[in-house]
């Protein structure tokens, strides 16, 4: 029993998610030697990749003996469970708030292949506010090497009440 | 000779009448359009005691999550009945809104009020050619018009997807023609930090939305008529 607990504690999973998009550049980046070595150096043991509609299939690996365990799947209805059990999340820009609500360290990787790439605006803004780290596929290994977890600030979810109050006042509804 | 003259002068007269009628019509339309634009964005002065029929335009993914956050705090008894519209290619959003509606704690006993969930054709899918998109745009506009005639909402809530543009323009035309006066609220997506989306920009420039909300202060600085409300997520 204790052994199981020990292995649970020492298991540190990096969860990579691309949502329903195709983001092969990210899958290839996390599979690169630089990134895998960087993750090992930072004490991560498992790499779990949700590859979405991507065509590039990662190579599975059982890990151990100073190497990273690698596994992947396409889609899951319970991304939340994977996010909850992860120690670090690397995601495309579309899943930012889903991850932040679990208060997990997050690296958002910007997909440069998207035409209208407004998602990167949000990632950069939240990185400036220290809620996450922002990277590009080719700079991911540098971010992993240099990131300072202590500098991250928790994100407090927003609130739609001000909008609703404005709308109510505009339409002449009496204040509740 | 006289006959020819008579025809000439009667032709002139009818031409003149046509011109006068045209000028009057255009003037009346222009006055009416300016009147609608003048009153757009002006808060209602009298107290509203009735519920208002509301059209909610859903987008994919993140847009829908933001909209549901807004609906969560909205006084459901004031904004009823509610119509949900999503793109025909988007199966998730309507499903989420159905789950949301059925999760509402219905203590008012007004469960009979019809909530409608409809899908709308998009004018252009990602990657579609421009030639075929002329035809699909026409179909999309006709479909939007049909849906608007059927629902005639008093309030439109939208937050980003391009599908809201035809609906908002039709709502504006309804105001001009006098079919239905409606209020249009547009919430720019949280993903827009530095620039408005195309939908937001169109509604902002054409002064169609009564209120255009943005979620980042720097966006409000760039577009002064927008209203900053903080993050919804």
Automatic annotation (TrEMBL), chain A:
Biological processes annotated in GO: dolichol-linked oligosaccharide biosynthetic process
One cellular-component annotation, GO: UDP-N-acetylglucosamine transferase complex
Protein biosynthesis in keyword set: no
InterPro entries the UniProt entry points to: Glyco_trans_28_C, UDP-GlcNAc_transferase
Domain Glycosyl transferase family 28 C-terminal: residue ranges: 13-157
UniProtKB keywords: Transferase
Lineage: superkingdom: Eukaryota
MF GO annotations: hexosyltransferase activity
Signal peptide stretch: none
PANTHER family: UDP-N-ACETYLGLUCOSAMINE TRANSFERASE SUBUNIT ALG13
Protein name as it appears in the record: UDP-N-acetylglucosamine transferase subunit ALG13 isoform X1
Native source organism of the sequence: Tripterygium wilfordii
UniProtKB/TrEMBL annotation, chain B:
Presence of the UniProt keyword Lipid biosynthesis in the record: no
Gene Ontology terms for molecular function: N-acetylglucosaminyldiphosphodolichol N-acetylglucosaminyltransferase activity
Chief location category: endoplasmic reticulum
Compartment list: Endoplasmic reticulum membrane
Source organism superkingdom: Eukaryota
Family note: Belongs to the ALG14 family.
Name this protein carries in UniProt: UDP-N-acetylglucosamine transferase subunit ALG14
Organism: Tripterygium wilfordii (Thunder God vine)
